[in-house]
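SEQUENCE-TO-STRUCTURE ENTRY
===========================

Backbone structure tokens: a row of integers, each naming the local backbone shape at its residue.

Task: work out the structure tokens from the sequence, keeping to the layout shown below.
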Amino acid sequence: DEEGKAVAYLQIGVTLEKLSNYSDAKTAFENSAKLSRGLNMEIFWRTQRGLGAVAAHLEEEPAEAIRYYGQAIEHLEQLRAGLAERQYRLSFMQHKLFVYDELIAFLLQQHKKYPSRGYARQAFEVFEKKQGRVNLEDVATSGARRFTGLPDDLAKQERELEVKLSRTHQRLREARSTSSPSKTESLASLT
């Protein structure tokens, strides 16, 4: 079926991207986009993120990478808004915020190359949007916790674990973004 093919192309694209085979990854992501457009927004946003990342690595026109990343974020927001249950909306974006981070990093990289083209302002706008989403989720989550009847000691333990998880995710992102020989050591220290 078309959705299965779209997922297969997406997975091939992700694998090729991780192998730094960006030209072939682009083709796989484009095939996934053609098949998933209008069919499955979950696949489509991931495909658009992949096209953004590949365009950034291929150093094509910066506007192309920005456009793809922007489409990925827009589709994420649409998916989140379409969730009927509040509890699902609270956690939906938690593991998807990396898309904002990738776009911010790309924009800051472009700012270093072309300081007069407004990339720093765009990066700040994306950062504000991300922070707004994070703050909204935090407020909603903290409000929900108060009314769950969870004992204070368990609520405190839950918050501590969330902080630890957040720090681990940050260290993992940092370790993945380095290309030094100590990368393996950094990744191993996260376990």
Remarks:
- The longest helix spans residues 119-146.
- The CA atoms of residues 152 and 158 lie 10 Å apart.
